[in-house]
């Protein structure tokens, strides 16, 4: 058992199973098993998942589209939004 996404505790076998079920993009995998959605936002697993997808689909790794990114927001004090 090889853990690929440590934040979400997802193994290589689980990823391969989902690819075989028809989830063939990074965004598909992100939505169905939450890979790249953990604390590190995919920094620890994104590249590995792209390599697994490429291998399982018989594509070059450059052909694997990266998932959609939404940078984390950070709290802003209310005073920063008030008109002065
Ligand atoms: S290792 Fe996958 S989101 Fe952090």
From TrEMBL:
Domain BFD-like [2Fe-2S]-binding residue range list: 3-55
UniProt name for this protein: (2Fe-2S)-binding protein
Pfam family, one: Fer2_BFD
Superkingdom field: Bacteria
PANTHER family: GLYCEROL 3-PHOSPHATE OXIDASE, GLYCEROL-3-PHOSPHATE DEHYDROGENASE
